[in-house]
Amino acid sequence: FGYKYVKVKLAASGKGGAVDADGDGTLKVEWEPFPSNRSVKTEGRAMRVEDGDFGRYFNAMNEARVKVDHGHIFGGWDPPSSGDSRVTQTVFDEENARNILIVLYRLPIIAKRTPDGKWTFKWDDDALYMTSLGLRKGLTAKARVTFVGIINSEDEVTEREKEEVSRRLLEEFKCIPVYVPRDTNKAFYEGFCKGVLWPLFHMYDTIVDAGGDTKRFNENLWRTYLRVNKLFSQVIVSEYQEGNLIWIHDYHLMVLPAQLRLSLAGAKIGFYLHIPWPSSEVYRAFPARDEILRGLLSATLLGFHLFDYARHFLSACVRLLNLEHETKQGSLT
Questions:
Q1: Number of alpha carbons in the 13 Å side-chain half-sphere of residue 333
Q2: Kind plus residue range of the DSSP H or E element containing 261
Q3: Would you tell me the crossing angle of helices 289-297 and 307-321 to the nearest 10 degrees?
Q4: What is the pLDDT of residues 285-316, one digit of tens each?
Q5: H or E element at residue 238
Q6: Which residue has the higher pLDDT, 91 or 168?
Q7: Which of 39, 55, 74, 80 is the most exposed place for a label (fewest CB within 10 A)?
Q8: CB–CB of 244/101 below 8 Å?
């Protein structure tokens, strides 16, 4: 369905324009009129979008606009009450709280070594996924959240320091580090993730290098990608307890769900991709295409930015793995 724009105006008087500033100089917003009403309903309770009243300002917490199933997949969370646009303080229920392992390439922590050799840690409020005012704060009000990832630092943790650093990160930040050797991490991140996956998934990769020669797939970089994903898998398996929810983020860890299934067959694993998924015509040229697809298909739930990206993914599954899928109104299975 089409886009719905918000019209914003800051004016000294209430004359003209789509927004009345009431002459007090305050900022006013209004949904742009849309020619017809829209309603998207999923199979079950996964999501329902009702956009029948575009003249009304729908607060992000308003249940009338977007309804999300807070229990169908990840279980047991109550939705916001209807008509209440205020963000209320949630009382943490320790007894019934869920355990969530959020897995991402870098921990939302900034780590530095002081001149005297001691480590200091603080939350990284500029992290892509978990700002202190965003998801991290929202989740910790309803669940016991533990983060898994590498340490974001220019300095490398020595073998003698690992036990103490791990203890502090767990006790002070509920973070579990994955230790990846510096050279391995460089080949993994700069070589394969940024050098191969990023341009491929954004569909601006070329088949020739700067010298005009045909590019060759680097098997060593691919094996490094698998090896780092395996390190993550080993840490998660060692920390996993029955009933935990595992939420994996982004293209750095696309084979991780399949590796986890080898040891955690019944685990609930969510995966969210923060970059586009390319068209099947582009993706099929990737030598490790099948392994990536099977890795992602091992997750319980997959999330994409846009419907087009989900459609590209399904097209790749059909054309490359000969799988079938079913499209329902508002959902894909």
A1: 8
A2: helix 256-261
A3: 120
A4: 999 999 999 999 999 999 999 989 999 999 99
A5: helix 219-239
A6: 168
A7: 55
A8: yes
